[in-house]
Design brief:
By secondary structure, this protein is of the alpha/beta class. Helices cover 28% and strands 23% of the residues. Strands 3-2-1-4-5-7-6 form a seven-stranded mixed sheet, sandwiched between helices.
Length: 225
């Protein structure tokens, strides 16, 4: 999907990853950006990951063609069609940015990400928050929450006009429990803002990031057990 939650999310996630990996001089890491799209998130992270190897992975040839303008290494791979084209335990970290909400079978996807990660490897996952501060107010008013969709043809009953194909939505608590049940140890959950919030409300959206359960976007750091 070409649509993402914005550079603020990418930068916050990159900082989390850089802190987890440490300097490349100690030991260069292999980072897989699974669902890299056009490579924007990985390119945003690149200045913070100097010396580490970042490989973009996507099923879309069109996305990979655009990603090649930003990334040195790109590989075609698909989570829903068997294994990714990597041996088990090859990756030190996986970036999984706003992909899980589009998947029919997120359980199998996390199984595959766990397979390609070495023991103790890092999973950096981001996804929209079903319980974002404004969604709580919208539900009380009887309005469909932002990020949720009832049709693949048009938006109905919620703010916004763009269909982005979200099939799964998570609260912070549900995401923690799901990732833990998939064989990971959750290290930290942070919040990030969403560029689609109306401009007058953006200061409030940034403020909500201090409480991840209320934030627009959930950033989760977990380690493979």
């Amino acid at each position: 999907m070409p649509v993402a939650s914005g550079d603020a999310r990418s930068l916050r996630q990159a900082r989390m990853l850089a802190a987890a990996l440490g300097p490349a001089a100690a030991r260069p890491a292999v980072v897989l950006d699974v669902g890299c799209g056009d490579g924007t998130a990985a390119a945003t992270a690149a200045p913070l990951l100097v010396g580490h190897r970042v490989i973009g992975v996507d099923w879309s040839q069109d996305a990979l063609r655009r990603a090649r303008t930003r990334l040195t290494d790109v590989v075609r791979g698909e989570l829903t069609a068997g294994r990714l084209p990597f041996r088990s335990g090859v990756a030190d970290a996986v970036l999984f940015s706003e992909v899980i909400e589009h998947l029919v079978d997120p359980d199998s996807a996390l199984d595959e990400l766990r397979r390609v990660l070495r023991p103790g490897g890092h999973l950096m996952l981001s996804t929209p928050n079903l319980a974002a501060w404004y969604n709580r107010a919208l539900l009380l008013a009887g309005v469909q929450p932002v990020f949720s969709e009832v049709s693949l043809r048009a938006v109905h009953g919620r703010p916004g006009s763009e269909v982005v194909g979200h099939l799964r939505l998570y609260t912070a608590r549900a995401l923690r429990e799901f990732v833990t049940a998939s064989g990971f140890e959750v290290v930290r959950v942070q919040g990030a803002p969403f560029h689609g919030v109306p401009r007058p409300l953006r200061p409030l959206d940034r403020l909500a990031c201090a409480a991840p359960s209320l934030s627009s976007i959930l950033l989760l750091h977990a380690r493979r057990t």
